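Anyone up for a design puzzle?
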């Protein structure tokens, strides 16, 4: 083929995305113009993505998954896009975020900090800037972390939003982040979240002691086909698990934790008392 540019998928994540797009297109005998017509762009744009001259977008990646039959696959184009965009995040988390935006039920347990789905922009920014000062991330990565919470929250605003269960270790609401005013605003955000018709917020108090079923943050997603995925992470590692044999026990443990946690009403009463103490 005249002027065909050879691709090196190992050069960068963008190059790997483009090389795979070309491979799947050519396996089907499609021209760039034909693929472009299917995903709503020009053949020239397809060429630019395949050769790495342009980066893919999330809408493009999702349309490519539809026409190439890779929706929901472990190697979907949406997953690749998220790894390009969030390459500095823990392994498995970019893929988890993609599933989170389509889940019908979300269950979260967090220790020490308010989880991203409930963070105010100011709270998220303070955490990112603290990591930046420690030298753990770059300024660009700090901006990305701060914007990710808002991106995830926006993905949950849909005509039929998911049911969201959040269980917070007591340390999440007692640990002041960013000073009294910022923390008061963050606790107010929790109150707003708990008042929504599709949410259930509980605090797991220190008093439950050894009956707390998790020692690390845990996220569980139920998809529309009722399959369940689990994402768990430590300080340095994240892991997305789809195996029923290991995910179901995590779901059971989450239900056990909810049974030990304070009721939603008692949880709101605790948060209200904490707000009085910091105002």
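Challenge accepted. My sequence:
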């Amino acid at each position: 083929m005249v002027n065909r540019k050879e691709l090196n998928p190992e050069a960068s994540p963008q190059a790997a995305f483009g090389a795979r797009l070309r491979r799947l297109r050519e396996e089907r005998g499609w021209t760039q113009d034909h693929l472009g017509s299917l995903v709503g762009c020009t053949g020239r744009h397809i060429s630019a993505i395949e050769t790495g001259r342009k980066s893919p977008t999330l809408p493009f990646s999702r349309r490519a998954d539809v026409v190439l039959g890779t929706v929901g696959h472990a190697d979907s184009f949406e997953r690749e896009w998220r790894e390009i965009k969030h390459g500095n995040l823990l392994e498995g988390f970019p893929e988890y975020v993609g599933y989170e935006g389509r889940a019908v039920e979300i269950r979260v347990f967090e220790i020490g900090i308010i989880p991203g789905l409930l963070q105010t922009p100011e709270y998220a920014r303070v955490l990112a800037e603290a990591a930046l000062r420690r030298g753990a991330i770059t300024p660009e990565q700090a901006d990305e972390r701060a914007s990710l919470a808002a991106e995830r929250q926006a993905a949950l605003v849909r005509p039929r939003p998911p049911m969201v269960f959040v269980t917070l270790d007591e340390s999440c609401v007692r640990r002041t982040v960013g000073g009294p005013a910022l923390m008061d605003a963050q606790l107010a955000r929790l109150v707003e979240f708990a008042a929504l018709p599709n949410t259930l917020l509980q605090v797991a108090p220190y008093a439950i002691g050894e009956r707390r079923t998790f020692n690390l943050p845990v996220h569980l997603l139920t998809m529309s086909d009722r399959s369940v995925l689990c994402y768990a992470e430590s300080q340095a590692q994240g892991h997305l698990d789809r195996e029923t044999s290991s995910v179901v026990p995590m779901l059971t443990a989450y239900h056990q934790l909810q049974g030990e946690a304070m009721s939603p009403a008692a949880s709101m009463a605790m948060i209200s008392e904490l707000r009085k103490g910091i105002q």
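A detail worth pointing out: The chain has two domains: 13-85, 100-120+152-278.
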